[in-house]
Amino acid sequence: MFRPFVISTISLLCCTALFSQTTNDLAPGAPGLDAHWPSAAKNGFGTANTLASKVWFTLNNGVMTEVYYPRLDVPNVQTLQLLIVSSDGKRVETEADDTAHRVEVLDPQALLFRQINTAKSGAYTITKTYVTDTQRSSVLIDVSFRWNAANLFEGAIYIYYDPSLNNSGMHDSAWADGNWLVSADADKASALTSSNGFEEVTNGYLGVSDGLTQLAREGRLTPFVRASDGNVVQVGRVPLAPLFPAHPAS
Q: How many domains, the chain?
């Protein structure tokens, strides 16, 4: 059965309003592990056909890797992927490491891509379709998640987002603003949301207090409100839509 949701990521020039929230609930472990860019090997590259949109995205290994803004020489994202956690919290899987990947070009005349990731265990299939908003500096990802009814791995779905703003993985700050996960570095910022919102979020430092590290160690999230001046990672749990029957295979 399918459970759909949409992820929207936006890279934009920073404005004063993005810094209006202050908190002392800081994640521990600053600045986190060193930042490294992902592999230069890519199997998808997309952008819009208008001047109003100034983002470019890359795909590799079943996930979205860099997002460039406002020029092709300024990457602002390292990785965006889903995490799948078993209901008992003892098993944590990532799209990059625990699924078999396939990519489709939906239209030979458009930079419109679909990634299909199937769990190596056979427990689930994730289908993600990427498109760039023609009127805004945004990347939209339509996601369908399907559990295999014969498998008992059902659990929770998290979005894992590693911003690397302003061509650097360090000196970023991250926090939650309503249903948006916001990050900023100097005059660059990003905002990440899901059409279903988030049930819980955390902001931490890579390899020390980030959400994936928390889930792997403890099977649950500690909701740190903010991580400042380091290699930050944002993780949010997605409330899944009600189940409805899968479309029959054509």
A: 1
Q: Is residue 207 included in any domain, yes or no? A: yes
**Distance (Å, rounded) from C-alpha 112 to C-alpha 226?**
34
Model-level pTM?
Answer: 0.89
Question: Phi then psi for 97, rounded to 5 degrees?
Answer: -100, -25
The CA–CA distances, whole Å, from 29 to 6, 186, 229 equal 31, 21, 11
Amino acid code (one letter) for 128: K
Give dist(CA 132, CA 115) in Å, integer: 15
Is residue 155 within 8 A of residue 147, CB to CB? The reply is no
User: How many whole angstroms separate alpha carbon 34 and alpha carbon 167?
Assistant: 14
Q: Which residue range is the domain that position 126 belongs to?
A: 2-15+40-237
The CATH number of whichever domain residue 83 belongs to comes to: 2.70.98.10
pLDDT in tens, 160-184: 999 999 999 899 999 999 889 999 9
